[in-house]
Design brief:
Elements: H1 3-9, H2 15-18, H3 26-80, H4 85-90, H5 110-142, H6 150-161, H7 187-194, H8 199-202, H9 204-227
Helix pairs in contact: 7-9
Length: 231
């Protein structure tokens, strides 16, 4: 590790900090000296750790290089070694069809399979590109509601906690605040709202309102599919 790197990594205290007046109280002075000793210990430990890590890395690199060189030499020796005597004497009596095939296994459908893989990859890439475009368009459409300035943040806070707004309960209506919504609807309740028989359980007007809300959501999603963007 170079001395300049260690100096930049573990800088000494600045002259301004060293020239600062020492506290007159003995306990405070001992506390400052204790913190200075801790800082010096941290710098020394970091320098020693960096040196040890460099030595360890160099030792590991030398070991990996030596092992790689030994394997390459062993491979070259095996490739350049002469044919063993038992293979040389027995090879004339070995049937040619039983010898090891070094040309690879036959694969008559290779070209068709490669073309199919290319088509699958192109289709998958097109789907991912369409998803990215849809996500970007959704982000663009929802950006109008993002809070990016302090003025918008203040406006949202005032709207959420304004007692005169529709966020809280009063004598004539139920507030829209999340704390006034109660428990989430169950699947059964949502199905009852979506069905024509909802009036037998939650009332005709509420059932029709729930059905109309679901229909409106379906119409919005249908419009998004037809126009190709968020609405």
């Amino acid at each position: 590790v170079s001395p300049s790197y260690l100096a930049n990594t573990t800088p000494r205290p600045s002259p301004h900090r060293l020239a600062a007046p020492k506290p007159t109280d003995p306990s405070a002075r001992r506390h400052v000296e204790w913190k200075a000793r801790l800082a010096e210990d941290r710098r020394r430990n970091l320098r020693e750790s960096l040196r040890e890590l460099k030595v360890r890395k160099e030792r590991t690199d030398r070991w990996v290089a030596a092992r790689s060189t030994a394997k390459q030499e062993e491979r070259e020796g095996l490739l350049s070694s002469p044919t063993p005597a038992h293979e040389k004497f027995t090879s004339p009596s070995v049937i040619q069809s039983s010898l090891p095939q070094r040309s690879g296994l036959p694969d008559p459908d290779r070209e068709a399979r490669i073309e199919q893989k290319k088509a699958n990859y192109a289709r998958h890439a097109a789907m991912k590109q369409a998803e990215r475009k849809n996500a970007l368009h959704t982000l663009y459409m929802n950006a109008r509601d993002f809070i990016v300035t302090e003025e918008k943040l203040s406006e949202a806070v005032e709207k959420a906690f304004d007692p005169t707004s529709e966020q809280f309960d009063n004598e004539s209506r139920k507030g829209l605040n999340v704390w006034n919504l109660g428990f989430p609807e169950s699947v059964r309740e949502m199905l009852e709202k979506a069905s024509k028989e909802a009036g037998t359980r939650v009332g005709a007007l509420e059932g029709m309102a729930g059905y109309g809300k679901i229909t409106g959501e379906r119409m919005r999603r249908l419009g998004e599919e037809l126009t190709g963007g968020k609405m």
